């Protein structure tokens, strides 16, 4: 039975690296994967999944309204879909998460999603909320805070390195905009006077 998997973490835990390794493992065994990433993630290039360690791959892009089920069904009909891998899964809509569940349940294709659990204000992203609710298997990928504890939170920072406490939930960025912290240090930074 195919399953819907959600691999989540704070920033810099190696989500994209793990996704690309999983895709390679399928290819090594003669199987075909379909990769997806969010259109709004243009840090490297739209339609590219890139890891901080330098590996990358082309991917289909999704945005609100993209019919992921339809795209996968077409590939499946041609025998080109042994696994679906989704990077930046926090940006999926509720409907798209339901589509991913339908892919696993009706097309019998495993779906592996990788993304952040919460935004910089500790709010669940829409995609993450529904993956946590509907996923068959949930796996936390771990990274560390500056203190050595497990980092679970994403702190948005400004140009000076100070905590950003307000703003839009979605702002694409890397190490220049976000720091992964444990809850204790995240809360300390948020409560510090500006």
Largest sheet features = 6 strands, parallel
Task: Note the beta-strand portion.
Answer: 15-25%
Helix share, percent: 25-40%
Number of helices: 5
- What is the CATH topology descriptor? Rossmann fold
| Count of separate structural domains | 1
Principal-axes geometry comes out as elongated
Give the name of the CATH architecture: 3-Layer(aba) Sandwich
Order of helices and strands: EHEEEEHEHEHEEEEEH
What is the level 1 CATH name?
Answer: Alpha Beta
Uncertain spans: none
Class derived from helix and strand content: alpha/beta
Oligomer: single chain
Calculate Rg over CA atoms.
Answer: 17 Å
Output mean pLDDT.
91
Total beta strands: 12
Q: Order the strands across the largest sheet as they lie in space.
A: 5-2-6-7-1-8
Distance between the termini: 52 Å
Name of the CATH superfamily: P-loop containing nucleotide triphosphate hydrolases
Question: Topology, please?
Answer:
Elements: E1 4-9, H1 15-28, E2 33-38, E3 48-50, E4 56-58, E5 60-62, H2 68-77, E6 83-86, H3 94-107, E7 111-116, H4 126-134, E8 137-140, E9 143-144, E10 150-151, E11 153-156, E12 178-181, H5 183-191
Parallel strand pairs: 1-7, 1-8, 2-5, 2-6, 6-7
Antiparallel strand pairs: 3-4, 9-10, 11-12
Helix pairs in contact: 2-3, 3-4
């Amino acid at each position: 039975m195919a399953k819907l998997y959600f691999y989540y973490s704070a920033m810099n835990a190696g989500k994209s690296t793990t996704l690309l390794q999983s895709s390679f493992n399928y290819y090594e065994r003669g199987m075909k994967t379909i990769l997806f990433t969010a259109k709004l993630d243009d840090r490297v290039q739209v339609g590219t999944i890139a890891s901080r360690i330098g590996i990358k791959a082309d991917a289909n892009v999704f945005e609100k309204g993209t019919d992921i089920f339809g795209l996968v069904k077409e590939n499946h009909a041609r025998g080109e879909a042994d696994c679906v891998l989704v990077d930046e899964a926090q940006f999926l809509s509720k409907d798209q998460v339901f589509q991913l569940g339908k892919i696993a349940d009706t097309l019998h294709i495993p779906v592996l999603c990788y993304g952040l659990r919460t935004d910089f204000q500790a709010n669940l992203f829409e995609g993450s909320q529904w993956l946590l609710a509907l996923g068959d298997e949930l796996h936390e990928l771990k990274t560390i805070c500056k203190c050595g504890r497990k980092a679970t939170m994403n702190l948005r920072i400004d140009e000076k390195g100070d905590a950003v406490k307000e703003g839009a939930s979605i702002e694409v960025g890397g190490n220049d905009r976000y720091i992964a912290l444990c809850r204790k240090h995240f809360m300390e930074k948020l409560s510090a006077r500006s």
